[in-house]
Each structure stands twice: as structure tokens, then as C-alpha cells.
Amino acid sequence: MKLVCSKPQLVDIINTVQRAIAPKTSLPILECIKIDANGDGNVVFTGNNIDICIEYNTECTVTEGGTIALASKMFGEIVRRLPDGDVTISVNPSNYVTKIKSGSSEFNIQGIAPDEFPDAPILEEKFRFSITQDVLKKLIRKTIAFVSQNEGKKPVLTGALFEIKNNYLNVVASDGHRLAVVKEEINDNVENNKLVVPGMTLRELLKILKDDEENVDIIVSDRTVLFDFGYYQVYSRLLDGEFLKYDAIISVVNTLNVVVEKSLITDSLERALLLINDDISAKSENKVPVRFNIGYDKIDVSCITGKGQVNDTVPVELDGDNLLIGFNCRFLLDALSACDEEKVKMEFSAPTSGCFIKSVEGDDSYIYMILPVRLYN
């Protein structure tokens, strides 16, 4: 195999494909990028850790076709440090030694026979829909913090539910203590359906997606989803299991409604978090809750830790009875940071019921629910 590719093009390809490379594995082939070149100038770079597979299709000058697997970390570091200009990659088919050359710099590294490299999944399409990159990025950004990172009793919660319902895409995430529901209208005429995408896949997509209106085609089979960007494709396994029945949770009618400047409540919570983070006696943040004493058009925000105490007051627009309630401070901040408006609506009903954070516009474009933490004194 012998091909020539520009360094910037190659760096971009490697950065993308490495998202699917296993950081630690007992199978050396999964630490590799496979390069498959044909005589027509089409070259496919692939990373595959079984859970995620990324294929990047590009055009290069190919003088000799072939296939090779190269250790991803070494290959990437070499290419990034080469002088600017064209990069020539040539492989000795008898021993897989691969020459990487640019300008006066030349490396010879040992490649691996690509025979054991796993193939990309073969999809038997059930349904598909399209969405722009910026919208998909927004949906993931607004929900990813709520995805559980602990398989525990319900592994399906380590992913996010993508639910197509009445021409809307609802993305739902929950770790059992909090819930995020974000929705966006889609133009495709798609029947109601759903899938659960692993959080690991969503975190990698968030790094790849751009803030533009280019379409991503999402193609779904029984066990796999394909995010097709045109020149590269991201395959991911799907999670099995029954996701949380969230409709009943978000349809609760609350009796205490608060409208607050997002920056004011966020700043207050971040001040409280300074003490919580510094309290080394706390085994978990739930054991050092932030207190909301709500009433008289204000929220008194307070927190007591082994290191000290903080008290703050945030003005609000209030409709309802007074309430004293406690929360995990970081959970509230995660929800607020996902809200883009200057003001947010916070709804409460009782010290043992969740806080709902919604748009002040009155629509249901996003809903966050955070369960309270019991206050003992």
C-alpha cells in the first residue's frame, strides 16, 4: 500500500477516528486504526472498540492499494509532529513495516495484519431520520450530565432515550436522582419510535459535532445506530431494557412557582459549592445539601459544612406558599448550566418532592427535575 495525504487532512481524520479507539484493552488490534486504500483513490480510516466504530472516508493519491492496522497512539503522535506538507504512507506487504514520510522526516513503524480487525456493523434498517448537527449537539449538551455513569440495577440509564413522538425528538436522561427531558421538532415524517444510545457514544459525538446546519442521518436497526455525517460514519451499539416512564413524572402539577435570574441563582450556588467541595469530611455531596428557604419574593440560600457556613439571598418572582427544601448543589448547577435563557422557572410543591426547572416561555422545550435531599436540622 502506498498513499499520499496532506498533513492537516490526516490530523483531522486521526482526531476523529481516535474517538473510537479503546484506551485500555487486552486485544492489541482494538488499539489500532485500520487504513484501507483502493486504486481509485478512496481511503477508509477506521477505529473500532466494539461499542463504537468510526469510519472516515476520504480521497488521497493512491499509487498502490492495500490494508494495514497501525497503533493509534503512535501513528497519531507521529503525524502531528511531522513537518507541514504532504504525508506519504507506504507499507511493506511482506512484514507490515510502515514508512511514514514528510519532507526530510521519516519513520518506520511496525504495523499489524488487519485480518483480526473487527468489521463495522451491518445494519438492517428499521427506521431513519435526519437532524442538523447544531440541534443534535444542543440536545446532547442539555442532557448528557443527567446520564447515569453507574450501571447498578438499571444499566439502561447509562444511556439517553431518543424518542420520536408526533414529529418531535425527545431526548431523555436520568440517573435515578434527577431527570432531563429536552425536545426538538423534526421535519422528517417518521413514525413514533425510540432507541437508547449509550452515554459513552453521546460524549464522543459531542466532541465531533459542529455548530452548523449540516444534516446528520440517523439510521436505526435492532441493536445498532448509525450517525452518518456523509464523509464519516459513527456506529454504536444500542442499550437494551425498559427506560424510565418519564411522562408521569413531568406531568406533576406544582403549587409553588418561582421565576429567577439564572445568573443570580447560579452565582449563589457556586458560592455554596466552594464550601461543599472543600469539606473533606463529606462522603458525598448529598450529605452536604444546599438549603433553599423560599418565601417573601426571595430564596435564602445557605449551606453548613465542617469547614464553615454560607448564607446568601436571591430575589425572585414568587407565586405560592413558603417552603424549606434541600438539594444536591451540583445537580442544580448542572441543570441551570444547560438552560440558555436569562431567566428560568423553578417549580416546587413539598420538601419531599422534586424541583422542576422549565422555560419561562411556558413551552415544554426542556424540563429538568431534581429530587430533594432530606434536611435533618
Automatic annotation (TrEMBL):
Span of domain DNA polymerase III beta sliding clamp central: 131-243
This protein's UniProt keywords: Cytoplasm, DNA replication, DNA-binding, DNA-directed DNA polymerase, Nucleotidyltransferase, Transferase
Any one of the GO CC terms: DNA polymerase III complex
Gene3D superfamilies, A to Z: 3.70.10.10, DNA Polymerase III, subunit A, domain 2
Coarse class of the protein's main subcellular location: cytoplasm
Complexes and interactors: Forms a ring-shaped head-to-tail homodimer around DNA.
Family in the record: Belongs to the beta sliding clamp family.
Record protein name field: Beta sliding clamp
Organism, scientific name: Hominilimicola fabiformis
Gene: dnaN
